[in-house]
What we know:
- The structure is a single chain.
- The chain contains 6 helices and 3 strands.
- It has helices spanning 9-19, 26-46, 72-78, 84-96, 100-103, 135-142; strands at residues 111-112, 117-122, 128-132.
- The chain has a 3-stranded antiparallel beta sheet with strand order 1-2-3, with no helix packed on it.
- β1 (111-112) and β2 (117-122) form a beta hairpin.
- α4 packs antiparallel against α6 (135-142).
- The termini are far apart.
- The mean pLDDT is 87.
Amino acid sequence: MRQVADIDDSVMLAAVKSVFPKGAKPSTVNRELYTPVIAILNMASKSKACAKPSFTRPKGYTDAPPIVIPDRDWFRLVLPHLSADKVALISFLTVHGRRLGDALGRTPKDFDPEAGTLAIGKDKAGNPLLVELAPGVRDLFLEMQN
């Protein structure tokens, strides 16, 4: 137990050694230790219980560059050169903000053209996912071969 105001880099390094005695990849340490602690400290800083956290991330960890969605010109230039399947995939991912894993492995039985929905399976919490497709994306699905 420790006061949130007392958590600093030295505390985090000791926690890394305690939680991961045999070592772990920097991405695992970041995901399983730093990210939750930073979230808690951010909430605490909003209520003035501590200063906003500023930690040195695990050695070897780098923030992924932000994802940039191409502008309309990119879509106008690129999409005409792709197959109907790829156009539908890119449109689905872009319009609905879904992950690639949500689209891969889908079969025709997952798509309900009348309802305009796509069953994705289950989310991280195990809940079933059903995406209501935008009309334009639904139409692109209908143009796919399989």
